[in-house]
Amino acid sequence: MLFAQVARMQLIATPPLKSSPRLLWLGVILTLAALLAALAGLYSVVYRDWVDEQRDSLVQELLWLEQSLRLHLEGHQQTVENMAPELQGGAAGQQRFVAAASLLRRESREIAEVQWVDGRGRVLLDGSGVSNGGQQLEGGSYDALWRAERLKRPVFGAPYRAADGKYRFDLAVPVLVHGRYQGGVRIVYDLAALLHHQVPWWIASQYHISVVDLEGKALASKFEQTPPQNTLFHQISFDPPGYGLSLRAVSYRAGVGLALPVLSSFIGLLTLALLYSLWRIRGHVRERAQAEKALQHEMILRQAIENSMKSGLLALDLRGQIVHVNRAFCELTGLDSTELVGQSPPYSFWPQDEAPLLQAAMQAVLNGELPEHGFELPFCHRDGERFEVRFYATPLRGNDGRHTGWVASLYDITELKKKRLALNYSHQRFLSVLNGLDVGLCVTDGASSQLLYANPAFAEMWAQFEPAGLYCPMLPGLAGAAQADRVSLEFSPDHDEHWFQLQYRKISWVNDEEAWLAMLVDVTEQRQRDERARTQDERFQTTSRLIAMGEMASSLAHELNQPLTAISTYAAGVSRRLPEAVQQQHGVQEAIQAIVQQARRAGQIVNSIRAFVKKHAPQLENADPDLAVSRAHALALPLAEKYGAQLLWEPGGKPVTVQMDPVLIEQVLLNLIKNAVEAMREADVRRPLVAIRTEAGERFWRVEVSDSGPGLAQEVKDNLFTPFYSTKPDGMGIGLNICRSIVEFHHGEFGVSDTLAGGCVFWFTLPLSGHNGAQ
Asked: Fewest CB within 10 angstroms: 110, 201, 578, 704, which?
């Protein structure tokens, strides 16, 4: 706003622009056109003079070169004419010829050959002193000699292409004896070598020198590169040798030097820049007039917008002095703009008791410490009424980016703050009620399942997460809940340690967004009570089955006792009535005694079971436990042999006495041996083995029944002594329980363990006589 006021003052003080002077613009354009025409004429004159100068220099250099080559060839002709009379001197003349020819070739490298030729065109001797055996010359190589013979004077021959592809020409000097032609001396010139050795470097550096024929074909040149195009060139007749040959020179420079073109281009650019500048100035003047007019309309519009705003605006300089306010700010404070502009902190609309707070906020603004949500500051109206404002500030920078002050906006938040406090109190009361519930409550977004709310009870029951955080637990059943409006389920997040009941229902959240309300109830105690009731019911059923089994065992023992007594009586009667001769034959008497003995033993077993079931004291007696093991081993041996198992017994070796019921202990051993044999048979063990080991200690006698089977799984071990638990399809699950009960009745211990080889070991201990008691 500070810049806006300055702009409005400048617009008021600026007079309206006059129309541009058209005659002045026309005069400037004509002057520039005349200047360009003069420069173009000057450039044309200078360029023509330069071209004439370059052409004169080229002609002079070429004439000098042609004259130099002419004199060089004429010198060779005179030298050869002096050599011709010496050829008549015989061998001495030939030596002088060879010496003169060698000297000539060394001094003139363009000479390819020097030969002495007879009258019939045969080469007699060359410059190196070697005879060619009468080589016959013909074609272009004999043309010069043929002309010399006819003209009786030295002659240059026409150019011809040699065997190596290069063009050459000959100089022939006839040898006349008394006016008759006797042969001649032939000098062969290499046309390219002539240019290479005889054209000076200072001419070759400026011009491309070559020899061309009548058709313009280059026969030889100083350098092999292609001659430049579109440049100055000149050619003159090359005589000798003549025959239509011309010496051509082509200038390497295609135009004038850099000075004149660069200077002319620079003058042209300056002229164009001047024209462009004048055109831009003209446009700028028009644009400025239009911009000032548009700025006037813009300032009027901005002033109207500023006055229509309900938020207060003020502009501050770098020291905090007010430089501009809008009408809304004046209405908030009750002060006029003339009263506000120019004030410095502390301002007149600051409450005196809040001066330290306001001074700190203003200092923060001046230091550039601007919070994102602004300041909440107390202001005071002219009549003393206080109000709260939300104060925002931003740096004010000019077009050059320099910090010139601050622009602040504010609005009255007194009523908004009252409503916010009332809403906050209501929200706190609502949260207090929800947070005080023992039932866990949470709300999740219907689309993304993002957590929206959770009370402390829910956070405590669900993984101890922070209810105010952004973490959203993955609640079970939420995917299936999308198909229904209400869902209820029970789950355990920690493997049956705690159980929760979770109920879902759809609700409308803020802005009518779809959400899910979840109620989480801890039902662990209820499930535990149900589990205890179920366990007690199972125990009651087990006890009932055991009672029924005891009654059945007692009945069986009572019913079997009489048949066994009858078997024993009948066997004794048969033994007494048989004749002595019959008793001695075929072991009849022993068989009858065995029947009596086994019947009596069966009766003892039945009576022992009956007494045990009825909780009557078994028939305890001091007995040798190894005898019970021996009888059990003898009774189990047929079973082991039937299934191909090896049954071994390893006695302890120390005789001891144990107070026990031998029949019951035998039943325990038989049961353990039978279980071991059947377990190995079901596991299809290749070499089944059951070993019985006994050992006597200081206070106890111990027996172990081990097998070479696969052993017992942990789950089987945990339920081994559970009533009615059996791994056999037809088992009742009471054998091992009865065995343990018999051992514990004898004040011993019963257990099971694994062997290192992978089998299983069942063991029990019995106290020695005189040491009854727990181990």
From this structure: 201
Question: Hey, what amino acid is at 244?
Answer: G
Secondary structure of residue 638 in the 3-state scheme: helix
DSSP string, 282-331: HHHHHHHHHHHHHHHHHHHHHHHHHHH-SSEEEEEETT--EEEE-HHHHH
Task: Assign 3-class secondary structure to 421-475.
Answer: HHHHHHHHHHHHHHHCCCCEEEEEECCCCCEEEECHHHHHHCCCCCCCCCCCCCC
| Strand-pair category, 403-412 with 386-397 | antiparallel
**Do the strands 155-156 and 167-177 form a parallel or antiparallel pair, or are they unpaired?**
antiparallel
Q: Cβ atoms within 10 A of the Cβ of 556, count? A: 14
Tokens for 660? 């026990």
**pLDDT tens-digit readout, 148-197:** 888 888 989 889 888 888 888 988 888 887 778 888 888 888 888 888 88
Q: How far is CA 657 from CA 288, 300, 745, in A?
A: 133, 127, 17
Residue 47 CA to its chain's centroid (Å):
68
8 Å CB contact between 282 and 28? no
Residue 127 identity (one-letter amino acid) = G
- For residue 760, how many other CB atoms are within 10 A of its CB? 22
* Sole residue written with tokens 């049956």: 496
pLDDT in tens, 187-226: 888 888 888 888 888 888 888 888 888 888 888 888 877 7
* SS3 of 75-120: HHHHHHHHHHHHHHCHHHHHHHHHHHHHHHHHHCCCEEEEEEEECC
- Integer angstrom CA distances of residue 449 from 439, 476, 512, 520, 521: 21, 11, 16, 16, 20
b/e per residue 309-327 (b: at least 16 CB within 10 A):
eeebbbbbeeebebbbbbb
Residues 500 and 493: their CA atoms lie apart, in Å, by: 8
SS3 sequence of 689-758? EEEEEEEECCCEEEEEEEECCCCCCHHHHHCCCCCCCCCCCCCCCCHHHHHHHHHHHCCCEEEEEECCCC
pTM: 0.35
Q: What is the pLDDT of residue 245?
A: 87
Exposed (0-12), middle (13-18) or buried (19+): which is 678, by Cβ within 10 Å?
A: middle
> Who contacts 555 (Cβ-Cβ below 8 Å, separation ≥6)?
none
CB 66 within 8 Å of CB 238: yes
With beta carbons less than 8 A apart as the criterion, state whether 174 and 152 touch.
Answer: yes
**Nearest of 331, 316, 312 to residue 365 by alpha carbon:** 316
E strand or H helix at 394: strand 386-397
Query: What pLDDT is stored for residue 765 in this prediction?
Result: 92
Closest by Cα among 230, 249, 269 to 36: 269
Beta bridge pairs of residue 486: 505
Average pLDDT score, the chain: 78
Q: Which helix (H) or strand (E) holds 504?
A: strand 500-508
pLDDT of the residue at 703? 92
- The answer to whether the CB of 206 falls within 8 A of the CB of 251 is yes
CA 180, 183, 185, 187 torsion-angle sign? positive
Strands 122-126, 403-412: pairing kind:
unpaired
The amino acid at 311: S
